[in-house]
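Continuing the batch. This is chain 6 of the set; chains 1 through 5 are on the previous pages. Same settings as before, nothing changed between runs. Recording input and output for traceability.
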Amino acid sequence: MKEVDQVLSKVFVKRFYSENAGFFLVLLGVCFGFLKAAQHFELNEALADKPVLYLIPIVFWLLYGIKVARFCSRVAREKESMMFGWIVLVGKSRIFSSALKVQFSLLLPILGYGSFMAYVALEQREPLSATIVLSSLLLLLLGLSFWYKKDLSNEKEYGLEASKTIAKWRPKYFFEFYIHYLLSFQGIRIVFVKSLSLLILYISIQVFMEEAIDLRYLTLGVLLSATANSFFSMNYAHFEREELQLFRNLPIGFRTKTLAFWLTFLCLSIPEFLVLAGQLSFEIPLFDLLSLMLIIPSLLMVFMALAYQPNFNQESFTKQLFFISATLFFVILGHVGALTLAILGLAVSALLLRVWLLKSEILI
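Output for chain 6:
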């Protein structure tokens, strides 16, 4: 196992830090060049006093985790990484052990600072704050480890032929195929993505209810929750292109296909709908609540449209995702309503899907 760990460390850990050396230098300069040690203590004491403010570092940890996951997936799928096919021979438990070590090394910057945040919280006698920090880091570490293990062992993820692992339920309608695939082959990733999404959503709701601020800041939390779900948009586009090629020969119109996409994302957004309804049913008007709910599937439609663009690659998708999220951040602060944002997202996604589905010959 030591040999396996050494190889994985050189291929993934060493390469990751080498490729991102500039990023870490800038990060060190920003975090420790402008803030002294005493200021770091004061900042974390303020966070510990109001646990809801941990939403801010958790979002940055999520973005860093996405960066790590994209890097590992890209390297694991390179031709040079085909040699890892033999790793399945060491057993699933040992593969996960190696994956955990690699992810621990890759997440070391945020794990280190997160541990410091938990220490400050305990010094302030705020065990709840320390629990929030440590549980968030643990969830991120385990989720990425399971994700990385799947890529590393090259487990079969795409294809409906693995009937032994498919639940008794069989899809009857077009929009059910992707949901059936997720439940059959991507259970761990569903739990990971949804846990992060619901955590962000819950914290934003608590901030809204405690601070009694206007609806814009709650809308920002919904935006971040939708961004956390962007994996489904990219993965759905890949699944639809690779595994449902048979449907290209069927006379499926644009409206039917778009409606199927919309219904799929509505179903995937049910956990977020339940959290919003359960926490806000008696706090905000029903119209505002429904408008907030519509934002999530609408933005997932936009993200999916991006995944259909010509010459698609994960790196450009990630950059566009961050750019759109940052733009919408300021749009929301500019008093654009949730319903307007949802309708705008549907209109833009329909336009982009129409153009790019035709170019990719998926739409006839």
